[in-house]
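[stage:ingest] chain + small molecule (guanosine-5'-monophosphate)
[stage:ingest] validated
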Amino acid sequence: MKLLEEKIRQDGTAVNEHILKVDSFINHQVDPALMQEMGREIADHFRNRGITKVATIESSGISPALMTALSLEVPMVILKKQPSKILNQDLYQTVVTSFTKETNYELTLSKKYITSEDHVLLVDDFLANGEAATAAIRLIRMSHATIAGLGVLIEKSFQPGHEKLKGQGIEVYALARIGKMGENYIEFWE
Ligand code: 5GP
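[stage:predict] done
[stage:export] tokens:
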């Protein structure tokens, strides 16, 4: 998506070869018009596939997921992060390894909001190592729902997330794919 690539070039900062900061329009301050455009683009890619819910991981995935859900006219479900394991039979739970924070956390989903009747599109801001998405898919599959795919705003294609998800039979659609980056440059893949 050219609009997003231009915005990343203009306002994004590659902190180093691995981390891209997009705090001014995605992660801290949010550009609502751009977010709506991006949500519509992800929704258009997966439209007419019988999607019943859009799911995301709190908190950075909420803006793109909400806009995608709005465009698909389905509810959005937030997979919630919990600091430690809580025992609750109304919840599905799984552990995630955080790429940015280098810690583990528990991801939870209420059994009420995703069921075996659902066909779920997962949406997130970034795809890096694919740990968060893999855990989210594991959690959604506990409910016996089916997965339509993963839509992300930015894929760092030099990291293994895309291949990892493809290996699990998950279609990945990314609006911007970064092949390489460093202090003063960002290279996109077509
Ligand atoms: P993964 O599990 O794919 O390694 O990482 C996914 C999560 O880590 C994303 O949801 C995102 O919140 C965060 N993340 C990974 N790489 C980056 C990055 O380069 N910049 C930012 N801002 N967040 C990232």
